[in-house]
Amino acid sequence: MATFSQHQYQPNTWETERLFLRPFTAKDFADLYRFYSHPEVMRFIGKGARTESETLAELISFITHWRQHNFGNFAIIHKASGKLMGRTGLYFSDRCKEAQFGYVLDKSYWGQGLGLEAGKASLDYGFKVLEFEQIVAFAMPENVVSRKILSEKLGMHCITDNFIYSGIQYAYYSIGRAEYLTSSSLRVKACKSS
Predict the structure, then answer these.
(1) 191 within domain boundaries
(2) What CATH number is given to the structural domain containing 148?
(3) What angle (nearest 5°) sits at the alpha carbon of residue 182, between those of residues 178 and 184?
(4) Which of 80, 81, 153, 161 has the fewest CB atoms below 10 angstroms from its CB?
(5) What is the pTM of this model?
(6) Is residue 193 part of a domain?
(7) 90 - beta bridge partners?
């Protein structure tokens, strides 16, 4: 059973128990910048907190990716508050050839299982709707919480904890479509050192 369903009135908008996932628009800049500029929120996201111009460039890249590929990063809307609380989704980049999954949540929404909920929806969307054969994710080695979600909760395998991209070390996770769709109980996947 899917963890999400398509919203009946909005195209490319999906919903989970507590979240709406929809493509970003230019109107989302202030909300995105609110958490992209927060050093603690962005501590484990690439080079860290973003400036206004960096946030705007990233927002434009989200919108452009949707136009080019008809999928991409979703704005995460918290149903109860109606607020934009993060981003999640699938995207292509020069980091690797596979579709990549990622998420960022505003700090006030941490510790509520919302990252897991958004993550399951993103993987369901990638495997059940877009029918990708493989999805990968990257996390900084010291980001224990996200690594636990990727491995223990989402069932992704840690391929290496020493993947270097743009001078930054990442743990590299992967899961295949067949395994994701047939897995009834998720197991802990230990990381191989390189």
Answers:
(1) no
(2) 3.40.630.30
(3) 145
(4) 80
(5) 0.85
(6) no
(7) 101
Q: Which residues of the chain have pLDDT under 50?
A: 1-2, 7-9, 184-191, 193-194
pLDDT digit string (tens) for 41-72?
888 888 889 999 999 999 999 999 999 999 99
Closest CA to 85 of 74, 101, 97: 74
Q: Which tokens hold the place of 104? A: 């960022």
Residue 175 within any structural domain of the chain:
yes
**Range of 92's domain?**
5-182
Q: pLDDT of 12-21, one tens digit each?
A: 788 999 999 9
Distance of CA 171 to the CA centre of its chain: 15
Q: What are phi and psi of 117, to 5 degrees?
A: -60, -45
Measure the CA–CA gap between 114 and 85, rounded to whole angstroms.
10
Residue 15, CA distances (Å) to 11, 24, 56, 77, 156 in order: 12, 15, 26, 9, 23
CA–CA distance, 173 with 39 (Å, rounded to integer): 25
